[in-house]
């Protein structure tokens, strides 16, 4: 499996799997809005540069999301991902109850045209869904 690191920082690692055509972001810790915004720019750049339509948002190491981050994702961030060409986003959920609740709230509140977002507890299930037609 060929992977290429696009961006790496203490709060997110973004990799491109060229074999599967999946861009993956592994979000970590207590995310702050400026960390999310910087990570999103690198993620969107990777999507645009490589024509990727599938994304794994690995949140297994993520902790609580602030209201500011939730608002950004609902009002702008996910729209930008859709506009960049993403069709499917698989979220691998954190075992942290508060992080799960925050992500569930974002997914409930967002209105998208065609971007399909599904949550999973395992990477295997997430990849199977992303690579299915």
Q: How would you characterize this protein structure?
A:
With 133 residues, the protein is an alpha/beta fold. 43% of the residues lie in helices and 29% in strands. It has helices spanning 33-50, 67-83, 97-109, 123-131; strands at 3-8, 12-17, 22-29, 54-62, 88-92, 116-120. It has a 6-stranded mixed sheet with strand order 1-2-3-4-5-6, sandwiched between helices. The protein is globular. The mean pLDDT is 88.
Kindly report how far apart the N and C termini lie: 20 Å
What class, by secondary structure content? alpha/beta
Main beta-sheet strand count, sense and barrel state: 6 strands, mixed
How many runs of DSSP E, i.e. beta strands? 6
Q: Which blocks of ≥5 consecutive residues have pLDDT under 50? A: none
Percent in strands:
25-35%
Strand-and-helix sequence, N→C? EEEHEHEHEH
- Strand order in the largest sheet: 1-2-3-4-5-6
| Tally of helical runs | 4
Radius of gyration: 13 Å
Shape: globular
Helix content: 40-55%
- In round numbers, the mean pLDDT is 88
């Amino acid at each position: 499996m060929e992977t290429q690191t696009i961006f790496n920082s203490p709060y997110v690692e973004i990799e491109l799997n060229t074999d599967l055509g999946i861009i993956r972001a592994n979000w970590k810790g207590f995310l702050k809005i400026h960390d999310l915004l910087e990570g999103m720019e690198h993620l969107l750049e990777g999507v645009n540069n490589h024509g990727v339509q599938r994304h794994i948002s690995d949140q297994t190491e993520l902790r609580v999301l602030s209201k500011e981050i939730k608002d950004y994702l609902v009002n702008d961030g996910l729209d930008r991902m859709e506009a960049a060409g993403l069709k499917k986003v698989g979220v691998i959920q954190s075992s942290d109850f508060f992080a799960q609740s925050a992500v569930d709230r974002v997914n409930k509140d967002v209105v998208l045209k065609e971007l399909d977002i599904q949550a999973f507890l395992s990477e295997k299930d997430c990849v199977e869904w992303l690579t299915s037609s």
